[in-house]
Design goal:
The protein is built from ten helices and two strands, in the order αααβααααβααα. By secondary structure, the protein is an all-alpha fold. The two termini are 32 Å apart.
Length: 220
């Protein structure tokens, strides 16, 4: 009996979104104390001087409470959903989008010295989750849900296009003097879409049941 209870506890622990919780706590830790954000933010000059960790850690720093709250809420909720589906792919999405966004900022926005925020990684997680759900719904011939996912992607593309055209954010309000970086959302969304579409086979549902992460086959 003790052995069965221990195994049940281990199974429950494995299903907890521990990575998402830990990374969300890291964002809180980076935002709260004075000076921590400056030590972790993307800083072009200091990265060139060898502080390469900033390429990744900069995403966990923020300029304003409003942006921080929005970014953290999306990251924690959507990240937990992605992690419950496939922890390895969730980690791949977070890591790949963090690197791709920083590289794109470095190469294509040379005038940008500082960068902060999880919104680009949020875009990657949302895109991956939507793609995974869309693939399952197509496999189950649930065309209403599939069209809803397509509409969601179209809305995301329109949001990014609006931000690029106007230089304004749609939801959160940036701190004074801080400009949004729509490129991060576009690159993050692209990374998430690629990982979601190319995430391996999807099990066909035998009945039009509601979406369940367990219905998606895990891949290594």
């Amino acid at each position: 009996m003790i052995r069965d209870a221990t195994q049940n506890l281990l199974r429950a622990a494995r299903r907890l979104p521990g990575v998402s919780l830990l990374l969300s706590a890291a964002a809180v830790a980076a935002y709260a104390p004075t000076g921590v954000s400056e030590a972790l933010q993307f800083d072009r000059a200091l990265i060139a001087a060898g502080e390469l960790w900033r390429v990744v850690t900069g995403h966990w720093t923020h300029w304003s409470a409003d942006v921080f709250a929005w970014d953290l809420a999306v990251f924690a909720i959507v990240g937990a959903m992605c992690e419950r589906m496939d922890r390895r792919r969730h980690l791949a999405c977070v890591g790949a989008s963090a690197l791709a966004i920083s590289l794109s900022v470095w190469l294509w926005l040379p005038e940008l010295r500082f960068y902060r925020g999880l919104s680009g990684i949020d875009a990657a997680l949302v895109a991956m989750l939507a793609a995974r759900i869309g693939r399952e719904k197509i496999a189950a011939h649930e065309w209403g849900w599939a069209l809803a996912v397509v509409a969601a992607f179209a809305g995301f593309a329109a949001k990014v296009a609006f931000e690029m055209a106007t230089g304004a954010t749609v939801f959160a309000e940036n701190a004074p003097g801080v400009a949004p970086v729509p490129l991060a959302h576009a690159v993050g969304g692209g990374v998430g879409l690629l990982l979601g579409v190319g995430s391996g086979p999807v099990a066909r549902a035998s009945s039009p049941a509601s979406w369940r992460p367990a219905a998606i086959e895990r891949v290594s």
